Amino acid sequence: MQAIGLVTLLIGVYNFLEYSESIRTDSANPDTGGDIYFLASFPHRIGYVVVGYNGELVYTARKAAYLSLKLCNRRELDDSVLVDRVRNGDHRAFSELVRRHQSVVYRSCYRILGNREDAKDASQEAFLRAYRKLDTFQGRSVFRTWILRVAMNVSLNERDRRKLPRADAASAESLPSLEAPEAELMKSEAVAEIHKALQLVRSNHRAAIVLRDLEGLTYQETAESLGIPEGTAKSWVYRGRERLKELLVA
Amino acid sequence: MSIEELLPAYAASELSEEESERVEDALAESPRLRAELSRYERLFVLLSAAAAEEIRVPADLRTRITLQITLNAYLDAAADLLGDILGAYGRALIHFLRLA
Q1: What value does the mean pLDDT of chain B take?
Q2: Cα B61 to Cα A124: distance, rounded to the nearest angstrom
Q3: Are B61 and A30 an interchain contact pair (Cβ–Cβ within 8 Å)?
């Protein structure tokens, strides 16, 4: 029995070290973060250690499996709970909010600005502004539309500041019209054409198209993210689509 | 709203049943409207392709943001502490030096 205990203790130590390593690895990977994940895996590993120490194999293993399952089934905390935690000084809660929403924020900034490096800077600035202005978030909208609104403001202001070519001034002549059947188009080429054409659409109409047609937000969410009435959002989407149709489809 | 204005929303299946019937009645009578609808349908194919495009978030974005926020929080806390220690003159100096 002692030999079994010693072996399981060694396994426990190995797993514990592996757990520590996984934390370090995760902190460098934005796609797999999340405290719940680690909490869920933790009892398993502690379980091995306890099994080895006590030698009470069956009982402790069951207990560890039960705890692990219970934590695996735990739901992620709601965004509003995380916002409250940030307001109470928990910076890690904001890091979790960043993990959840960085994809939609970065994609939207990229589609507005048309450049990955600018999109990265704009996303960072948007989250920093959101952190500073978190007291103004009153929970009337969900956090996603609120952070998107901040990101849209940053992206559109940045675009104006850098004096990127305005839609009205830019010539559409350089953009070839896509007359070939869809099946013949390379998907990547079509996407590139869309990105080029988007830069020739007026800023506010482009933002509406990005949120509605590319990010799949509802008209209400699009309106909230742009800080405009829903009717205006519909009108901007319509104008954007009309312009894109003229630019892209013969 | 005119039929022309309803066309893109019709192509995107965003209309109510009543509005859809209005558009379909108009389409049945107008080759020009059918051609326009075809253009919008092709546009939505392109938009779908763009929406499905994978845009990878830079690996260090979250780390950069978290680091910046943590740094700002420490600086704010340090400035508050310094302000408390030095009193009103200290706070004025911190404000003047734009440390907080």
Answers
A1: 87
A2: 7
A3: yes
* Joined tokens for residue B100: 């907080």
**In chain B, where are the structural domains located?**
3-52, 58-100
CATH number of the A166-250 domain: 1.10.10.10
Cα B3 from Cα A245, distance rounded (Å): 16
User: Cα–Cα distance between A209 and A193 in angstroms, integer?
Assistant: 15
In chain A, which residue's Cα lies nearest the Cα of B11? A241
Which residue reads 């948007």 in tokens? Answer: A126
Of the candidates B8, B46, B73, the beta carbon closest to that of A248 is on B46
Selecting from A91, A106, A245 the residue whose C-beta is nearest the C-beta of B69 gives: A91
Inter-chain residue contact A95 with B64, CB threshold 8 Å: no
The CATH class for the domain spanning A78-164 reads mainly alpha
Query: Which chain A residue shows the shortest CA-CA distance from B70?
Result: A91
A53 or B88, which is more confident? B88
Q: How do residues A136-190 score in pLDDT, each as one tens digit? A: 888 777 999 999 999 999 998 887 776 655 554 444 444 444 444 444 455 677 7
ipTM: 0.78
